[in-house]
Amino acid sequence: NAGVTQTPKFRILKIGQSMTLQCTQDMNHNYMYWYRQDPGMGLKLIYYSVGAGITDKGEVPNGYNVSRSTTEDFPLRLELAAPSQTSVYFCASSSPGRYEQYFGPGTRLTVT
Amino acid sequence: TQLLEQSPQFLSIQEGENLTVYCNSSSVFSSLQWYRQEPGEGPVLLVTVVTGGEVKKLKRLTFQFGDARKDSSLHITAAQPGDTGLYLCAGAYFGNEKLTFGTGTRLTIIP
């Protein structure tokens, strides 16, 4: 059982470049989330989705976009990378009414 | 902004000692979770507390949810090097599936 998988594991971008962070879960969870974690800090919610075709903004959505065309996949898009987006990005999933969120291993992104 | 403050931010103690980590907020939560995160990995759930005053034990770890459902504590007895990691509390608000994460406590247990 793979759980939540994220690709790539590491990436270096130049300012202004774009990229998509991939997230896939095989637990048939309806809810999926994207967080960023800055050094020594907790997690901040970027976007979340309660099901295919439904997405909503979290605490820090500026500079990001998401889509949810299937239950399994929840990609995060950075259109014009900025140094402030240097962070570790985590994808997570959960079932409705269940408290536990299952996290992927993270993507470490550096924008220079 | 809804905040969960954790204290201490950093803690380094000798193997065998006891410690307590705190998670505080001015908001009321429907439930509160504790996660542990190791370097290079995502957080992993340790426990969920849902009732005010609830105490849960997980081997040497004891979790307590405040009576008013605004705070929580994690107590570790006889800490071991394997307890080293970043401990995160996360609160859920009534009628909301989203979690608000605390600022984290980075714990180091020295052999």
CATH domain class name of chain A = Mainly Beta
Helix content of chain B: under 10%
By DSSP, the count of extended strands of chain B is: 11
Query: How would a crystallographer describe the biggest sheet of chain A?
Result: 7 strands, mixed
Write down how many β-strands of chain A occur, each being a DSSP E stretch of 2 or more residues: 11
CATH C-level class of chain B:
Mainly Beta
What is the terminal-to-terminal distance of chain A? 36 Å
How would you describe what is shown here?
The complex is a heterodimer of chains A (112) and B (111). With 112 residues, chain A is an all-beta fold. Chain A has strands at residues 4-7, 10-13, 19-25, 31-37, 43-51, 54-57, 64-66, 76-78, 87-94, 102-103, 107-111. Chain A has a single domain, classed as Immunoglobulin-like, CATH 2.60.40.10. With 111 residues, chain B is mostly beta strands. Chain B has a single domain (11-110), classed as Immunoglobulin-like (Sandwich). Chain B has no helices and 11 strands. Chain B has strands at residues 5-7, 10-14, 19-24, 31-37, 44-49, 55-58, 61-65, 71-76, 85-92, 99-101, 105-110. In chain B, strands 2, 4, 5, 9, 10 and 11 form a 6-stranded mixed beta sheet that branches. Chain B has a 5-stranded antiparallel beta sheet with strand order 1-3-8-7-6, with no helix packed on it. The model of chain B has no long low-confidence stretch (mean pLDDT 93). Classes of the chains: A mainly beta (112), B mainly beta (111). The A-B interface holds A 4, 31, 33, 35, 40-45, 48, 50, 58-59, 90, 92, 94, 96, 99-101, 103-106 and B 1, 4, 6, 9, 31, 33, 40-45, 48, 50, 88, 90, 92, 97-104, 106.
Outline of this structure?
The complex is a heterodimer of chains A (112) and B (111). With 112 residues, chain A is mainly beta.
